[in-house]
From TrEMBL:
The entry's keywords: Membrane, Transmembrane, Transmembrane helix
UniProt cross-references to InterPro entries, sorted A to Z: Perm_prefix_1
Name of the protein described by the UniProt record: Uncharacterized protein
Transmembrane segments: 91-109, 129-153
Length: 176
């Protein structure tokens, strides 16, 4: 990381104010968010250093760098897309890891205990079977979400409704 010389607080405050405003506008997983905010800070700092290296006064270089980067709202729009993908992957990973465990527990509970002629009503057994099917479908959808938001996400456009689909998949798996 290239940093410019320490100067007066006004210019540095402008960079930090810009980064803080961007940070406040972003929502998503904290690790991914802090990485993106740090990248923005580093980019601004490197741009300021490049302008001062060309002989531009520090205060003016900071103002020029912030103007070149765009407003925090403009940056947030593009950064939020990446954070949304990160959140979708996080949710899909949680579903993919937890739903098979829930299915295994359900089958263990079903197989232990009384014989098949147990006192559990047939309707409850059918409901449990349907819920297990829904949980299995949630696992498959989560795996698909992980596949589409992984390496392929850099090459393909992200489906507009993917985060909503992953959220509903998580809700379905939780309910089942």
């Amino acid at each position: 990381m290239t940093t410019g010389p320490a100067r007066g607080g006004g210019a540095d405050d402008l960079v930090e104010k810009h980064v803080a405003e961007l940070d406040a506008l972003l929502h998503g997983p904290s690790r991914a968010k802090s990485r993106l905010v740090e990248e923005a800070r580093d980019g601004l700092t490197e741009t300021v250093a490049a302008y001062t290296g060309e002989g531009e006064p520090y205060e003016r270089a900071v103002h020029r760098a912030v103007a070149e980067f765009g407003s925090a709202r403009e940056l947030a729009a593009s950064f939020q897309r990446e954070l949304t993908i990160a959140q979708a992957r996080h949710t899909a990973r949680a579903i993919a890891l937890s739903a098979p465990f829930l299915l295994a527990c359900w089958f263990l509970v079903q197989s232990t205990g009384a014989p098949q002629t147990s006192a559990v009503p047939r309707a409850a057994q059918l409901l449990a079977t349907h819920l297990a099917t829904v949980a299995g479908a949630a696992v498959l959808l989560a795996a698909a979400a992980l596949a589409t938001t992984g390496v392929l996400a850099r090459r393909l456009p992200v489906p507009h409704r993917l985060p909503l689909t992953v959220a509903w998949t998580g809700t379905t798996a939780s309910v089942s």
